[in-house]
Hints:
By secondary structure, the protein is mostly helical. Helix content is about 55%, strand content about 5%.
Amino acid sequence: MSVDALLTPSNLPYQLPDFAAIKTEDFLPAFEIALAEHKAEIEGITANPDAPNWENTMEALERAGLPLNRAASVFFNLQGTDSSDELDAIAQEIAPKLAAHSDSIYHNSALFQRIEALQAPADEESQRLLEQTTRAFRRRGAALDSAGKARLSEINQRLSALSEEFGRNLLKDTRELAVSFDESELEGFSPSRVEAAAAYAQAVDREGYVVPLELPTVQAEQAVLTSSEARAKLYEASQQRGQNSNAEVLLETVRLRAERAELLGYTTHAEYVIEEETADDVDAVRGLLYDLAPSAASNAKAEYKLSAEEAEFSGEKVEAADWPFWESKVRERDYALDDAQLRQYFPLTRVLEDGVFYAANRLYGITVDKREDLVGYAEGVDVWEVKDHDGTGIGLLLTDYFGRPSKRGGAWMSSFVDQSHLLGTKPVVINVMGITKPTSGEALLSLDEVTTIFHEFGHGLHGLLSDVRYPSFSGTSVPRDYVEFPSQINENWAFDPSVVRNYARHHETGEVIPEAMLSAIEASRQFGQGFATSEYLAASIIDLAWHSLTADEAAAVTDIEQFEQDALQLAGLDVEKVAPRYRSTYFNHIFAGGYSAGYYSYLWAEALDADGFDWFEETGAAGDAASAESAREAGQRFRDLVLSRGAAADYTRSFETLRGRAKDIGPLLRRRGLAGAI
């Protein structure tokens, strides 16, 4: 059967999907077969005449649905990275069916009764699996009456369709709003970047030069374009996304989420979500955001003053679109940091192989080698094999770093295969970014892009180094406010002296980055944090505000822009000329990406990251005096306590075991220049 490539384990190493054998027209029939098979497996569990035990109920449930998982992992990865009208149409049809199928499992009374009758084995992972599965069934409506279950299923199907529609609309708007320029408007771009803009224009069948939009409000190119009009074109186009296409989608989403929360016994969607997170409750999250907001706003205003003074010397003013440009000029003036000059030392290949992979080898003993015999799903996707210190194969990493019109914005990690001892599977993970591909030569990266590559590989390590029995606990299957901990702590290695000198070399001469540049990068780390923290907090506050509405309150909201302004004013974060990192109509994280009521998680996890990296420095694993032996010992401990455990161990206890105490928020406040804010 032609659908076998989607439904059966691949014969390629580590069960890497055989992308060459997968056809778009196979997805719908594959989903139909897989859904029917999974339904039959569930019926087999509930019809088992034997008394429920761990093997015939819980482990059978963990083994069930593998063909569906295979088809879904391939489909949704491809739709995000290399979408088409055909894939979007399939998603529109299949998303509600998948939601209904999931509900049919969680609303299966016979299955829930078998689970409630179980006693788990004594090991912590099994105990946690029973506890979390039981809670998941209750949170998904297992205890509701038939009318409640029916309404809940209706809501879930509609929310699934709305999520898919939001993402589809955003991708369409992002493509259509990509900004056309004349060559004269591109002053500040390097010759290679101008060529890339011309190539992108050809790819989208336009004349002249086109700059695609990135996911956040502020576009990276605003920092280099010398024309204020050109900067404004990018900035304004960015904020137009979703204004027409997603307004009603997001309002309906908010209303249905609030209704669902009340149906399940919660006051708000935020309360429902945060119950599963490591944060204590909604008040704890709101308290952190609101406590930091005034100091962040104050710092941002001080930074604006510096930028405005610099612009005044040139007879210009700083509008919202100009802030990144003049901030870069202040950075260049005060710290001798020039973005174009810095990029010369960060060619993509060196950053990846001599930086990201080198750091992983130094800490965890793993090696990463390209598999030329294995191919990805699109041009430019590379496949790498990851091996342990003893040569044992760990899994595969796919890297997809260059932007394309068919790829949604942002950067992320996902997986095609999850690690599980129960299933005998090893991980196949993917890292995705949207770097502008040069027409010739090596891609030269900005400091932010370097950091992002390390960040996403931190997620990759979480998936690759997983060492759990149950697939439900594999890798990144952890709370949102914990999943960013491994990724954010991996960012620290990007500019740690023990790593950066190994990879930061001039792309033409091979010269190691000068010490003066490294010192300037370090000295400038807090500059710009007022702006960065304010735009992040603003997005987090908007997310929490939407999802702290009761059903009645949600029904009364009609003006999205006014709602955003009110939420920011209430938090003391209505900073002139600083827009939220994402406005609601293009806030993909919370309306199509699984982060609803959870965008705060980056900051929550950064508290773990900042404190945790202090531990690496204290052990001698990081910094100028770092030793290879100390790095390997510390890396192994971090791997054992955090990276390998997924959701199989208590998150707070794992961190406290690593650190020797509870987390301290002080390092985070110092890093962001907010010491004294709390």
